[in-house]
Design goal:
It contains 14 helices and twelve strands. It is α/β, with parallel strands linked by helices. Helix 2 packs across helix 12 and helix 8 runs parallel beside helix 10. The longest helix has 14 residues.
Length: 319
């Protein structure tokens, strides 16, 4: 009996399904390395080993124009699920398929974006994680900017109109404007879609007597975070972001979730789907932990003294 059982067990193991996960990135391949490592680590923690029982098919974007084209090959390849990073890529995947489950990462306002009926019961073929708990996170970022730069009076707000124009721009704009009024700040919005427009906005902004810059969370501003930090330093402008990567590149401060770690959590959704869960029933998660990162070297270059209370609250202080 045992002699017969061994070949049967081996045959069953060989016949086990190898799942295929398509992964869509809104940035070029080299920049995704730490995020891909986290995704693979999360999959391995749940028993999914690339090359053994799961195949990862990555697709990368060199420009926003690539977003619409990325998912088509994955649909044709009949992947079992798609992990899509940022709203633009999630929207492209949703337009390409209503059947393949999509795990969205870095989603913003998924209900207004049309990705889900509700967070608790998405009801469509998309689940995953949002980038912010609510638009109030934007107000918190502006509040922190005021605490770090109490002399600030007029703030230039950088935003990508192609992103905020696709869904509920009014909510985000109104939230920032309302927060500004409570902080006795005046804000004006500069719409930027690429490096050229960013350079123009930060170059001509001096004519408007700004005292600080606030970059709203968006893939364009993420990609060009180092450029914004460089230009802000040139014009001696304190700048706050929603992601730490810009602070590591020289911006003054950030407040938001740890973007690098989020793909690891995406593996949880992939695991549930591959074990039989229905995508429409998997609740969309919101971040519960936000990190404050301050670049004290940049603060010193700008002649700013960071309040001790903020330094004690900070998750990381870059010296």
């Amino acid at each position: 009996m045992s002699l017969l059982a061994a070949p049967l067990a081996a045959g069953a193991q060989q016949a086990a399904k190898v799942y295929r996960l398509g992964v869509l990135w809104a940035i070029p391949a080299p920049a995704t390395a730490p995020y891909r490592a986290e995704l693979e680590a999360g999959l391995r923690e749940r028993g999914w080993v690339p090359g053994q029982n799961i195949v990862l098919e990555h697709r990368f974007s060199e420009s926003p124009a690539d977003f619409r084209k990325l998912p088509s090959g994955l649909v044709e390849a009949r992947v079992d699920a798609i992990a899509a990073m940022t709203n633009a890529v999630i929207a492209a995947a949703a337009n390409a398929t209503t059947e393949i489950p999509i795990v969205g990462v870095y989603m913003s306002d998924p209900i207004s974006a049309g990705f889900a009926v509700s967070l608790a019961r998405p009801g469509k073929n998309i689940t995953g994680m949002t980038l912010d708990a609510s638009p109030e996170a934007y107000a918190k970022q502006l509040e922190l900017l005021k605490l770090i730069v109490p002399r600030a009076r007029r703030v230039q707000v950088l935003r990508n109109p192609d992103f905020y124009g696709t869904f509920n721009q009014h909510v985000y704009t109104t939230t920032v404007e309302k927060a500004a009024r409570s902080l006795k700040l005046e804000v004006y919005f500069s719409d930027v879609r690429n490096a050229g427009e960013i350079e123009e906005a930060l170059g001509t902004g001096a004519q408007k007597s700004r005292s600080a810059v606030y970059a709203m969370s968006d893939i364009v501003l993420f990609v060009h975070g180092p450029l914004i930090a460089k230009l802000a330093a040139r014009h001696r402008l304190p700048t706050i972001f929603g992601f730490r990567e810009a602070v590591e590149a020289g911006a003054l401060a950030s407040y938001g979730p740890d973007l690098v770690r989020m793909p690891r959590r995406a593996a949880h959704f992939v695991d549930r789907l591959f074990r039989g869960a229905r995508v429409s029933d998997l609740p969309i998660e919101q971040p519960t932990t936000f990190e404050l990162v301050i670049n004290r070297k940049t603060a010193e270059a700008l002649g700013l003294t960071i309040p001790q209370s903020l330094l004690l609250r900070a998750d990381q202080v870059i010296e």
